[in-house]
Amino acid sequence: MTGPTLRSRFKLAIVSNTDDDLFADTARLLEVPFDWVITAQQARSYKPSHNNFRLALERIARPPAEVLHCAQSVYHDIVPARALGLATVWVNRRGAKGGGATKAASGRPDLEVPDLKTLAEMAT
Question: pTM higher than 0.85 for the full model?
Answer without folding.
Answer: yes
